[in-house]
Design goal:
Strand content: over 45%
Helix content: under 10%
Radius of gyration: 18 Å
CATH superfamily of the largest domain: Acid Proteases
Number of strands: 19
Distance between the termini: 26 Å
Structural class: mainly beta
Shape: elongated
Number of helices: 2
Number of domains: 2
CATH architecture of the largest domain: Beta Barrel
Amino acid sequence: MSPGRQYHATRISGWRHRVASVVAGALIAAGAGATDVTVSGLFPNKAVVQIDGGSLQTLAVGQKSAEGVLLVSVDGDGATFEIDGKRIAVGLGRARMSANPSSVASAVIYANTRGHFITDGQINGLTIGLLVDTGATHVALPASEARRLGLDYRKGKKGSIRTANGIAPAYQIKLDTVRLGNITLYGVDAVVVDSENLSQPLLGMSFLNRLDMKREGDVMTLTKRY
Protein backbone atom coordinates (compact mmCIF):
# COMPACT_ATOMS: atom_id res chain seq x y z
CA MET A 1 0.00 0.00 0.00
CA SER A 2 1.20 3.51 -0.72
CA PRO A 3 0.16 6.97 0.55
CA GLY A 4 -1.29 7.93 -2.82
CA ARG A 5 -4.06 5.35 -2.75
CA GLN A 6 -7.54 6.13 -1.56
CA TYR A 7 -8.93 4.12 1.35
CA HIS A 8 -12.39 4.27 2.85
CA ALA A 9 -13.57 2.73 6.13
CA THR A 10 -16.91 0.95 6.23
CA ARG A 11 -19.41 3.48 7.55
CA ILE A 12 -23.15 3.77 8.10
CA SER A 13 -24.23 7.40 7.63
CA GLY A 14 -27.44 9.13 8.72
CA TRP A 15 -30.24 7.16 10.27
CA ARG A 16 -30.82 4.55 7.60
CA HIS A 17 -32.20 1.38 9.19
CA ARG A 18 -29.64 -1.15 8.15
CA VAL A 19 -27.15 -3.49 9.77
CA ALA A 20 -23.53 -3.78 8.66
CA SER A 21 -22.76 -7.08 6.96
CA VAL A 22 -19.39 -7.28 8.66
CA VAL A 23 -17.81 -6.23 11.90
CA ALA A 24 -18.21 -2.45 11.86
CA GLY A 25 -16.62 -1.37 15.12
CA ALA A 26 -15.14 -2.94 18.22
CA LEU A 27 -14.22 -2.35 21.81
CA ILE A 28 -11.27 -4.71 22.14
CA ALA A 29 -10.32 -6.47 25.34
CA ALA A 30 -6.66 -7.39 25.59
CA GLY A 31 -6.56 -8.79 29.10
CA ALA A 32 -8.37 -11.27 31.26
CA GLY A 33 -11.70 -10.00 32.56
CA ALA A 34 -12.08 -7.33 29.89
CA THR A 35 -15.16 -7.06 27.70
CA ASP A 36 -15.12 -7.34 23.92
CA VAL A 37 -17.97 -5.37 22.29
CA THR A 38 -18.55 -5.26 18.54
CA VAL A 39 -20.95 -2.78 16.92
CA SER A 40 -22.58 -4.38 13.88
CA GLY A 41 -25.32 -1.87 13.07
CA LEU A 42 -27.13 1.30 14.15
CA PHE A 43 -30.76 2.39 14.45
CA PRO A 44 -32.21 5.57 15.98
CA ASN A 45 -31.40 5.26 19.70
CA LYS A 46 -30.43 1.59 19.28
CA ALA A 47 -27.31 -0.39 18.42
CA VAL A 48 -26.82 -3.97 17.24
CA VAL A 49 -23.91 -5.41 19.19
CA GLN A 50 -21.99 -8.62 19.80
CA ILE A 51 -20.50 -9.04 23.27
CA ASP A 52 -17.61 -11.41 23.98
CA GLY A 53 -18.25 -13.27 20.72
CA GLY A 54 -21.85 -14.12 21.58
CA SER A 55 -25.00 -13.76 19.51
CA LEU A 56 -26.04 -10.41 18.03
CA GLN A 57 -28.35 -8.43 20.29
CA THR A 58 -30.06 -5.06 20.04
CA LEU A 59 -29.64 -2.58 22.88
CA ALA A 60 -31.68 0.58 23.29
CA VAL A 61 -30.16 3.73 24.77
CA GLY A 62 -30.22 3.32 28.54
CA GLN A 63 -30.43 -0.48 28.33
CA LYS A 64 -27.80 -2.71 29.95
CA SER A 65 -26.98 -6.14 28.59
CA ALA A 66 -26.72 -9.27 30.72
CA GLU A 67 -22.94 -8.86 30.48
CA GLY A 68 -23.16 -5.44 32.11
CA VAL A 69 -22.62 -3.32 28.98
CA LEU A 70 -24.76 -0.16 29.03
CA LEU A 71 -25.58 1.67 25.80
CA VAL A 72 -25.27 5.38 26.65
CA SER A 73 -25.87 7.03 23.28
CA VAL A 74 -25.89 6.49 19.51
CA ASP A 75 -24.89 8.87 16.74
CA GLY A 76 -24.54 8.53 12.99
CA ASP A 77 -21.02 7.08 13.19
CA GLY A 78 -20.92 4.99 16.32
CA ALA A 79 -22.08 4.42 19.87
CA THR A 80 -20.96 5.16 23.40
CA PHE A 81 -20.97 2.41 26.02
CA GLU A 82 -20.43 2.29 29.76
CA ILE A 83 -18.45 -0.67 31.07
CA ASP A 84 -17.39 -1.00 34.70
CA GLY A 85 -18.30 2.63 35.28
CA LYS A 86 -16.20 3.96 32.37
CA ARG A 87 -17.51 5.37 29.11
CA ILE A 88 -15.87 4.50 25.80
CA ALA A 89 -16.98 5.54 22.30
CA VAL A 90 -16.81 2.99 19.49
CA GLY A 91 -16.80 4.32 15.91
CA LEU A 92 -17.89 2.32 12.90
CA GLY A 93 -14.96 0.63 11.21
CA ARG A 94 -12.83 1.25 14.29
CA ALA A 95 -11.18 -0.71 17.06
CA ARG A 96 -10.47 0.60 20.50
CA MET A 97 -9.17 -0.80 23.75
CA SER A 98 -11.64 -1.43 26.55
CA ALA A 99 -11.63 0.30 29.90
CA ASN A 100 -9.97 -2.74 31.49
CA PRO A 101 -6.59 -3.05 29.71
CA SER A 102 -4.03 -5.76 30.18
CA SER A 103 -0.66 -5.15 31.82
CA VAL A 104 0.87 -5.97 28.44
CA ALA A 105 0.63 -2.99 26.07
CA SER A 106 -1.32 -4.31 23.08
CA ALA A 107 -4.14 -3.56 20.67
CA VAL A 108 -6.39 -5.62 18.45
CA ILE A 109 -7.72 -4.38 15.09
CA TYR A 110 -10.33 -5.94 12.81
CA ALA A 111 -10.21 -5.70 9.02
CA ASN A 112 -13.05 -3.90 7.27
CA THR A 113 -14.88 -5.20 4.20
CA ARG A 114 -12.02 -4.08 1.93
CA GLY A 115 -9.51 -6.02 4.01
CA HIS A 116 -7.95 -2.84 5.40
CA PHE A 117 -7.08 -2.49 9.07
CA ILE A 118 -8.38 0.92 10.12
CA THR A 119 -8.58 1.96 13.76
CA ASP A 120 -8.88 4.97 16.02
CA GLY A 121 -5.65 6.09 17.62
CA GLN A 122 -4.33 9.25 19.21
CA ILE A 123 -1.57 11.59 18.09
CA ASN A 124 -0.38 14.05 20.71
CA GLY A 125 -3.53 13.24 22.69
CA LEU A 126 -6.06 13.88 19.88
CA THR A 127 -8.12 11.13 18.24
CA ILE A 128 -7.44 10.25 14.61
CA GLY A 129 -8.40 7.40 12.28
CA LEU A 130 -5.36 5.45 11.08
CA LEU A 131 -4.87 2.86 8.36
CA VAL A 132 -2.23 0.23 9.15
CA ASP A 133 0.24 0.35 6.23
CA THR A 134 3.36 -1.80 6.43
CA GLY A 135 4.48 -0.31 3.11
CA ALA A 136 4.77 3.19 4.56
CA THR A 137 8.15 4.05 6.07
CA HIS A 138 6.69 6.61 8.47
CA VAL A 139 3.40 7.60 10.00
CA ALA A 140 1.98 9.72 7.17
CA LEU A 141 -0.58 12.49 7.60
CA PRO A 142 -2.50 14.63 5.14
CA ALA A 143 -1.80 18.33 5.72
CA SER A 144 -5.45 18.91 6.68
CA GLU A 145 -5.20 16.35 9.49
CA ALA A 146 -1.87 17.77 10.64
CA ARG A 147 -3.46 21.20 10.95
CA ARG A 148 -6.42 19.75 12.86
CA LEU A 149 -3.98 18.17 15.29
CA GLY A 150 -2.24 21.52 15.75
CA LEU A 151 1.05 20.36 14.21
CA ASP A 152 3.29 23.15 12.93
CA TYR A 153 4.60 20.83 10.25
CA ARG A 154 6.07 23.56 8.05
CA LYS A 155 8.87 23.88 10.61
CA GLY A 156 9.86 20.31 9.76
CA LYS A 157 12.44 19.21 7.22
CA LYS A 158 11.01 19.85 3.77
CA GLY A 159 11.38 17.29 1.02
CA SER A 160 9.24 15.24 -1.31
CA ILE A 161 7.59 11.85 -1.32
CA ARG A 162 6.67 9.57 -4.19
CA THR A 163 3.02 8.55 -4.25
CA ALA A 164 0.85 6.64 -6.70
CA ASN A 165 -0.19 10.02 -8.11
CA GLY A 166 3.35 11.33 -8.52
CA ILE A 167 5.79 13.36 -6.46
CA ALA A 168 4.26 15.40 -3.61
CA PRO A 169 5.82 17.94 -1.23
CA ALA A 170 6.24 16.61 2.30
CA TYR A 171 7.60 17.67 5.68
CA GLN A 172 9.36 15.32 8.06
CA ILE A 173 8.42 15.87 11.71
CA LYS A 174 8.50 14.02 15.02
CA LEU A 175 5.30 13.28 16.92
CA ASP A 176 5.41 13.60 20.70
CA THR A 177 3.13 10.60 21.26
CA VAL A 178 1.23 8.05 19.21
CA ARG A 179 -1.28 5.90 21.07
CA LEU A 180 -3.12 2.83 19.85
CA GLY A 181 -5.15 0.81 22.34
CA ASN A 182 -3.03 0.88 25.49
CA ILE A 183 0.20 1.17 23.49
CA THR A 184 1.87 4.58 23.72
CA LEU A 185 5.08 5.36 21.84
CA TYR A 186 7.06 8.58 22.14
CA GLY A 187 9.07 10.50 19.57
CA VAL A 188 7.60 8.82 16.48
CA ASP A 189 8.88 9.93 13.06
CA ALA A 190 6.17 11.12 10.67
CA VAL A 191 5.72 12.88 7.34
CA VAL A 192 3.03 15.37 6.44
CA VAL A 193 2.02 15.26 2.78
CA ASP A 194 1.21 18.82 1.71
CA SER A 195 -0.99 17.97 -1.27
CA GLU A 196 -4.21 16.17 -2.17
CA ASN A 197 -2.33 12.93 -2.88
CA LEU A 198 -2.99 11.50 0.58
CA SER A 199 -6.51 11.34 2.01
CA GLN A 200 -6.13 8.68 4.74
CA PRO A 201 -3.64 8.97 7.63
CA LEU A 202 -1.29 5.98 7.57
CA LEU A 203 0.17 4.10 10.52
CA GLY A 204 3.54 3.28 9.04
CA MET A 205 6.67 1.43 10.12
CA SER A 206 8.10 4.21 12.30
CA PHE A 207 5.37 3.06 14.73
CA LEU A 208 4.88 -0.56 13.71
CA ASN A 209 8.53 -1.60 13.77
CA ARG A 210 8.53 -1.11 17.54
CA LEU A 211 5.76 -3.68 17.92
CA ASP A 212 5.22 -7.38 17.39
CA MET A 213 2.52 -7.91 14.76
CA LYS A 214 0.38 -11.03 14.52
CA ARG A 215 -2.39 -11.51 11.98
CA GLU A 216 -4.97 -14.28 12.02
CA GLY A 217 -7.46 -13.81 9.21
CA ASP A 218 -9.30 -10.55 9.76
CA VAL A 219 -7.77 -9.95 13.19
CA MET A 220 -4.44 -8.18 13.77
CA THR A 221 -2.82 -8.09 17.22
CA LEU A 222 -0.11 -5.54 17.98
CA THR A 223 2.07 -5.92 21.08
CA LYS A 224 4.64 -3.41 22.30
CA ARG A 225 8.24 -4.66 22.28
CA TYR A 226 10.06 -1.66 23.74
